């Protein structure tokens, strides 16, 4: 019993420690504010809930069947990083060059249709802004290490699921409390913060692409290839 508990705690801690820094929910809060500006508090809470659920589903799929899906389509993790990095770059560039970053929605009432909310909650707010190619790559790699001789696979799977729930809850709490930034920073402060966040997002996308190119170069520079 103690061995299984130790396995559970060790696996859960490993998954949280690996995913949480790269997802960085507090860092995504300013981007969330920018892309949901004009929405009322209730709609923002709905979006935060949708994003956290989407993030949980993406991480679970990536961890438990991600490697099989990539193998089926013949897609490498390098391609995932390159494609995801380009998406992040495109989102950052669009946000950085927006004429009115604090008013991305044309609806003056702050209300959107359910289909539009669901679409925005998944792309780009969940993928690639919150759960991007980096976190997906890590989840796939963690999933590949789950089967261990002499260790209960079901216990490690349960621990991984628990850890993903914890990470998703952190995403929800960070996005839910994001509007409080408006009260502290004001209109001018939010404009500056959102522009800086958009620039950082663009740089993150460039870094992801560079990492994918580096992996590509290393793979083809190995002896025997």
Task: Provide a short characterization of the protein structure.
The chain contains 8 helices and no strands. By secondary structure, the protein is mainly α.
Give structural notes.
- This protein is mainly α.
- The chain has one domain (about 30-220).
- Helix content is about 80%, strand content about 0%.
- It has helices at about 1-25, 25-35, 40-75, 75-95, 115-130, 135-145, 155-175, 180-220.
- Helix 2 (about 25-35) crosses helix 7, helix 3 crosses helix 5 (about 115-130) and helix 3 crosses helix 6 (about 135-145).
- The longest helix has about 40 residues, at about 180-220.
- The relative contact order is 0.22.
List keywords for this structure.
single chain; 225 residues; mainly alpha
- How much helicity do the residues have? over 70%
Largest sheet: none
Measured by DSSP, the beta-strand proportion falls in under 5%
- Succession of helices and strands: HHHHHHHH
The total domain count is: 1
Please, what is the average pLDDT?
81
Q: List unreliable stretches of 5+ residues.
A: 101-110
Q: Round the Cα radius of gyration to an integer and report it.
A: 19 Å
Q: Shape, please?
A: globular
Count of helix runs: 8
Give the termini separation: 47 Å
Structural class computed from helices and strand pairing: mainly alpha
Total number of beta strands: 0
Oligomeric state of the chains present here: single chain
Sequence-ordered SSE layout with sheet pairings:
Elements: H1 2-23, H2 25-35, H3 41-73, H4 77-96, H5 114-130, H6 133-144, H7 153-176, H8 180-221
Helix pairs in contact: 1-6, 1-7, 2-7, 2-8, 3-5, 3-6, 3-7, 4-8
